[in-house]
Structures are given as structure tokens and as C-alpha cells.
Amino acid sequence: MPPPDTDDPEFGLYTGGFFPDVDREKLNRLHTRIKEAEGSSSVLKSIKDSFKRIKFVDERIPRLMGRFFARNFPETLSPTEGLHWRDYCAKKIQLPVMEGSAELADYGRLMENELSDPSLSAPTRAIIHALVEWKARLEEELLAWKR
Question: What is the 3-state secondary structure (H, E, C) of the chain?
């Protein structure tokens, strides 16, 4: 299946090639600084803020790195950035870009259908119940309007 027609930089990694060497060097330095931060929220926030001033050849990098920090270091997000990230995640699970991707409602129906099978083994049933609980947490975290 061909990649979707989108300006999403994550999909662009598969269609637009890899980063230029000069950008990779900057990203390697950034990752080294992150590793050296050893999880310190204040240091990570400082690294994130300094990252915003770096100029890259590849215009996808700022958006990708913004998502990187949001996924891996949500404590570095400002309240506004946190809301933007939450909205982005909610959109992704409600309106998936790729054909064949399941939106959250489809996922719920799929799980209900699986659980209705009386021949389902106990271990598989337990896994599906855990997936249903995960879906509920996603709905609570991403779709509840807690602004």
C-alpha cells in the first residue's frame, strides 16, 4: 500500500528520505545531551528550549523533535504545548491517516466482538480485557475535556 498523501513528518521519513549529515550531527549531540540529563526535568526542559533555537536543513525535524519530547518527556511541555499534544493524540486515534488503521471506535467494536467468542481461551480473554482497559484510559486521558 502506498504511503498516505500527508504533510506529517513521521510519514515523510518513509517517503522523503533520511536527514542530511549536518542535521544528523546536530541530532546526535542533542541525544547525547538528553542522555547526560539523566532524567532531570529541569535539564530536559532547558535542552528542549535550546533545541528550538537550532536551525536544521530538513524542515521536518522541529515537528518530529517536538513530538519526541511530548512522547518521552511530557513534563517538559508548557500547558499550551500539553493541550496541543493531547489534541494531536486525540485526532490520531479518532481520525487515523492510513487506510486500514482502526480508529478508537472500531478498536472497541473489534474487542467486543472478540470477547463475545465463547471459545476464547482464558489467557487471550485476559489480554483482551487489558486492551479494553487501555482503550478506556486513552479515552479518559485524551478525549475527556479537562481544560
Answer: CCCCCCCCHHHHHHHCCCCCHHHHHHHHHHHHHHHHHCCCHHHHHHHHHHHCCCCCCCCCHHHHHHHHHHHHCHHHCCHHHHHHHHHHHHHHHHCCCCCCCCCHHHHHHHHHHHHCCCCCCHHHHHHHHHHHHHHHHHHHHHHCCCC
